[in-house]
Write a structure and sequence with these properties.
Layout (H helix, E strand, L loop, with lengths): L13 E5 L7 H8 L6 E6 L16 H18 L5 E2 H10 L5 H5 L6 H4 L4 H4 L16 H23 L6 H7 L2
Parallel strand pairs: 1-2, 2-3
Helix pairs in contact: 2-7, 3-7
Length: 178
Amino acid sequence: MTGSENKDVREEAYQIVVNRQNSQQAQELYRNLQQPGIRAVQFIPHIEFDRHGHLTAESVTAEGWGQFLNAVFALWVREDVNRISIQLFDKILTQWCGRADAMNLQNISPGGADCLSCYVLRFCAGECLKYRDSSGKSVLCAGYKAFFNDSSPYMRVMRDLIKQHRSPMELMAMLRQT
């Protein structure tokens, strides 16, 4: 979609675990990923609970996760659309284009009534079960909402470009003119 269309399917994504510390260094971390040859990235939030059900000190917080995603997206959307495939960004753009993977839609696993009525459920699909607190809600929910809200205008433009059989890369040129 964004970068995965031209990616060799045998190429593996670099998996980057995002913890509390490196979530605060998103720009630096992403700049290091812009090295030649890196074509696909998957960001994995580090979430651990202590025996009392609280996040450990190493775990990324919802706020930190949202800020991290927004910082990386701000760089990526201006510099690397179609050059670096970021799994989450590709998945969200696929949703925006109305080409949701049937498996993803079947695997929606909301964590309660709040999730069922949430406007971002189609993007997060209820999130990974291991990221849920004792109430069943994802501990990253607020971070995802912040990211989905901030990235929406850009996703709409890329969706519209794709529907016009144009490249989402054109957004980078548009952003350079502003």
